[in-house]
């Protein structure tokens, strides 16, 4: 059974960098042809795809976040990490990592982490 687990700070200050890591067990992040994504959900709003790293290591980002975010991976640890620079208080949300079958695909029937709440406040 595959499992994904997010880890990172629950509280960051405005203008700081938010770094979250997803640890995957029960399967490899290099397995063809999956994508490993970051998705967030602000309070009272829908899911927002932030970006993905493919099985190949290629990265894809939401146009609205591309200038501030990056995704990397550590295949030896079966982890992928997302950094988001210059966060604002409006980016308070539950952040999820997920497996996907395509770029920007968000399918709740695929494997997702439980989500981690992040608050941006001074």
How would you characterize this protein structure?
Helices cover 0% and strands 47% of the residues. By secondary structure, it is mainly beta. The strands form two sheets. It has a six-stranded mixed β-sheet, with no helix packed on it. Strand 5 and strand 6 (59-61) form a beta hairpin. The protein is globular.
Percentage of helical residues? under 10%
| Rounded mean pLDDT score | 96
Query: What spatial order of strands do you see in the largest sheet?
Result: 2-10-9-4-5-6
Number of H/I helices = 0
Q: Which structural class do the helices and strands define?
A: mainly beta
As a whole number of angstroms, the C-alpha radius of gyration is: 13 Å
Low-confidence stretches: none
Q: What string, H for helix and E for strand, traces the elements in order?
A: EEEEEEEEEE
Specify the overall morphology: globular
Per DSSP, what share of the residues sits in E-state strands of 2 or more residues?
A: over 45%
Report the count of strand segments: 10
Distance between the termini: 39 Å
Outline the biggest β-sheet: 6 strands, mixed
List the helices and strands and how they pair.
Layout: E1 3-7, E2 11-12, E3 18-25, E4 35-41, E5 48-54, E6 59-61, E7 69-74, E8 79-84, E9 93-100, E10 116-120
Parallel strand pairs: 2-10
Antiparallel strand pairs: 1-3, 3-8, 4-5, 4-9, 5-6, 7-8, 9-10
Throw out a few tags for this protein:
122 residues; mainly beta; six-stranded mixed β-sheet; four-stranded antiparallel β-sheet; 10 strands
């Amino acid at each position: 059974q595959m499992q994904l687990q997010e880890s990172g700070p629950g509280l960051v200050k405005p203008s700081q960098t938010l770094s979250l890591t997803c640890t995957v067990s029960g399967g490899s992040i290099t397995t063809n042809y999956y994508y490993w994504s970051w998705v967030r959900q602000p309070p009272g709003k829908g899911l927002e795809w932030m970006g993905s790293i493919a099985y190949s290591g290629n990265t894809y980002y939401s146009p609205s976040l591309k200038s501030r975010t990056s995704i990397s991976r550590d295949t030896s640890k079966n982890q992928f990490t997302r950094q988001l620079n210059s966060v604002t208080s409006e980016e308070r949300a539950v952040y999820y990592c997920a497996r996907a079958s395509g770029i920007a695909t968000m399918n709740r029937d695929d494997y997702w982490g439980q989500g981690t709440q992040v608050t941006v406040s001074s």
